[in-house]
Structures are given as structure tokens and as C-alpha cells.
Design a protein that fits this description.
Elements (H helix, E strand, L loop, with lengths): L1 H28 L4 H18 L2 H10 L4 H10 L9 H12 L23
Length: 121
């Protein structure tokens, strides 16, 4: 039980501290709005960490008995438990984002009789 509490505190601390440091680093350059930068950027960085499941990797690494530096490398860079697209999300992404609007800039305006919205190669 003590090991789990230690892992929870460690994962919370090493998830929140880098987010706060990122916000304060930007806030140093904008002294008059220091706390706005700290709160705004820290919130965005913390949401990214939660969505990327950094806290879960830190928790599992801490339960596994990792020392500090390997724990941080595992928590922030390991591909384990990373969110991934499902097949339907990937199909939507390829059809609408990749082959959708961005490639319409390559449409050949000289093809007046082409009924398509963008030029197919």
C-alpha cells in the first residue's frame, strides 16, 4: 500500500512540475503577464500530458522500481500505452484531412471540364 501511495505522489509530482516549469519559462519573458502565461501554458501542457497518459507510465514505472532518470525517460518517451487511432479514425483522417482540403490547392485551373473538386493524379 505504501508503494502505491509513493507511486501516486511521484507520478503526480513529475507530471505537474514540468508543466509548471514550461509555463514559468515562457512567463519569464513576459513579466507583466507572468501568471497568465504560467497558468495558461501549464494548463495546456498538463492536458497534453493527461491525454498522452504520461501519469500512467510514470505510475507503472514507479511501481516497477525504476530510478529517477529512467523513470522520467519511460514516462515521457516510451511508446507503451500511447493513444492510437482506430481504423475508422484513420480512414476519416486520410479521406478528409490528408486527401481533402489541403490538396485542393494543387487543382489545375486549366482543366475547365473536370467535374471533380480537386485534380486526381
Amino acid at each position: 500500500m505504501t508503494r502505491k501511495i509513493y507511486a501516486i505522489i511521484t507520478s503526480f509530482f513529475w507530471t505537474v512540475l514540468p508543466c509548471f516549469l514550461a509555463g514559468s519559462l515562457v512567463g519569464v519573458f513576459f513579466i507583466k503577464s507572468f501568471w497568465y502565461c504560467v497558468l495558461g501554458i501549464s494548463t495546456l501542457a498538463f492536458l497534453w500530458c493527461l491525454l498522452d497518459r504520461v501519469h500512467l507510465r510514470l505510475y507503472r514505472g514507479c511501481l516497477g522500481g525504476m530510478s529517477l532518470w529512467p523513470l522520467l525517460k519511460y514516462g515521457y518517451t516510451a511508446p507503451v500505452m500511447r493513444p492510437a487511432m482506430s481504423a475508422a479514425e484513420y480512414e476519416w483522417y486520410m479521406n478528409w484531412v490528408i486527401f481533402g482540403i489541403p490538396l485542393r490547392i494543387f487543382r489545375d485551373p486549366r482543366r475547365k471540364k473536370d467535374p471533380s473538386k480537386f485534380h486526381h493524379w
